[in-house]
Amino acid sequence: MDVTPILNSLNDAQRQAVTAPSEPALVIAGAGSGKTRVLVHRAAWLIEVEGVSPQGLLAVTFTNKAAAEMRSRIETLLKLPVQHLWIGTFHGLAHRMLRRHWQEADLPQNFQIIDSDDQLRLIKRLFKSLEIDESSWTPKEIQWFINGQKDEGLRPEHINDEGDPHRQQQISLYKSYEDICQRAGLVDFAELLLRAHEILRDNIELLGLYRRRFQHLLVDEFQDTNAIQYAWLRLLVGDNGVPFVVGDDDQSIYQWRGARVEHIHRFQKDFPGTQVIKLEQNYRSTRTILNAANAVIDNNSSRMDKHLWTESAAGETIKVYSAYNESDEANFIVGRLRDWIAQGNARADSAILYRSNAQSRILEEALINARIPYKIYGGLRFFERAEIKDALAYLRLVSNREDDSSFERVVNKPTRGIGARTVEIIRSYARVNACSMWRAAEAITSDGVNGRIANSVNPFMSLIERMARETNSLELHDKVDHVIHLSMLIEFFKKEKGEKGEIRIENLAELVSAAKSFEPDPAEEMSQLDTFLSHAALEAGEGQADAWEDCVQLMTMHSVKGLEFPLVFMCGMEDGLFPHQRSVADPNGLEEERRLCYFGITRAMQSLYITHAEQRRLHGKDNFSQPSRFISEIPDEYIEEIRPRIRNAQPMQSSTSTQQRMSIDDAGSDVGIRLGQRVRHKKFGDGIILNCEGQGAHTRVEVNFELTSDTKWLVLSYANLDLM
Known about the structure:
- The protein has about 725 residues and is α/β, with parallel strands linked by helices.
- The chain has 5 domains: about 5-100 and about 195-280, 3-Layer(aba) Sandwich (Rossmann fold), CATH 3.40.50; about 110-185, Orthogonal Bundle (Arc Repressor Mutant, subunit A), CATH 1.10.10; about 320-380 and about 545-640, P-loop containing nucleotide triphosphate hydrolases (Rossmann fold); about 380-540, PCRA, domain 4; about 645-724, SH3 type barrels (Roll).
- The chain is built from 28 helices and 22 strands.
- Strands 11-12-10-13-14-9-17 form a 7-stranded parallel beta sheet.
- It starts with a helix and ends with a strand.
């Protein structure tokens, strides 16, 4: 058999991984080393050369986008349709399993998935029903506790309360939350994984069926698996399955949400005879960027030995800029971006990375002032937008009247005279009688006593019944369109002033388009509407942004997973911010922060700028910080420091000729001012001098005023600034 098409594009290490014998394999894939290529070609090798049935493969990725890419590339490589392959995210595959075995999972056939936002709403309703004071307990805290316990595979009855009243209350709330979800047929994201694990663990026949079917399990981003995901994989593998996992302990950056880097370290123990293969050739970055990344990560002690290398040229040095404050930092970045764009480069080929979302505000202001389009990557996805969730709530009620979350969301949206008191009466009745809010509303409005409630609630319930009746035989997109129009959401959003309402209406139209282009899995046995609603919920939970236009990309370090850019700015590189203050004294936390730094550096392909500020106002406080210790871990030979004191001031406009630029060190020296100096203005308040030009009475200064966050140029002889 000619295996050339499968192997001819691979390097030696990749080829070794792809053709590995049918036994457990751990592929340590460094940044930019072609791990997706290895997974795709491994699947193709097993099918084409080893004769494994496509139905005998299970491939797990961490995003729907990655799953679609893997499916497409396997199809292209083999020239065979692979739509029936079990390729998807952990949540997607668990959902697929639960849909097929809903009875074994003790779920209604049309169970609904709730995303993080809906889950939090449900917990808030639970708080209200139990009259819990949110000053002592927060819904977010309980949400975090519940999801954390599920990620560990623990039900309320399995948790040791340790004699702690605080923990006892958490466990009690977890149990109450479970009761609500079970009664309404609701499944959150963590529940998908936990219940998929439980039905295999508790059903020997079913487990045997899947073990016989899936002889080969391929796992991407293995370093990001949490406890329940790893337990699910081990259960599926059993004694005879062949796990093939690809990951990099140096890129494990999600410990805060349950990921366990130690799974890579214990894999060889759990699967004796594991073959370890290292992919160390990088195809993404210049040699300088790669060497700098290696130097940083080498300071971590608990890591597997590997050293990335590349055949690429050395490339340019890494530029490090020491700013006076966050405004100076933002202005510097914008200036470099202007130069980049002026050279004919695409804006979308550049990214600004930061440790905290709070850092984006000043960067956004600078980009807006410079008229440079930008996009916050990892912002609200389409299915997370409020108007889309409203429309989906109507559709979910059409499918399942027992869905309390959807009932509460739209019972008075658009407003129809159903107040908070009425909703509370319905909620209380549902709690006392252990029924859904829909059933509670039916009972309350049919007793002949609550006439006022009946007058407001009955039209809503009749509307839902009408939606179900009139859309029963319609195609999916017509069904979505009809429900949206009957809901009166379009008329409701037309009342919003300005562009916001128009965008919401356009998004509702896009939901109809999404339904029209939706292609459900042929293997799914549930209705097309339920399949679409499940798809929407899973997409909302993924946390990845859609494809972008030609805009500068702004994102946190954690959001840049799977992305790479020719030009990267890593800003806010200060001790206390990055590494984060809460991690500095914790060796494990500091190592994760260092992995995050390594992760950010390796996103850069050609040019990398690292910036830090002497003073930064963040969360309402002025912070004076030292440069991040991670900068000092980069050898001097790879760094070019850019000092603000040699930055040239912008000249004033001249109608006759371009004025000669003057060094900032000289400008303003004769009037006793300096860059970074704090000043006070009677009208604009306190500020910091960012720039100055001219001398004597003609000296102008650029001041960033804290009260308004505005930057203004002022002539010193007229401004009457008080030096502080």
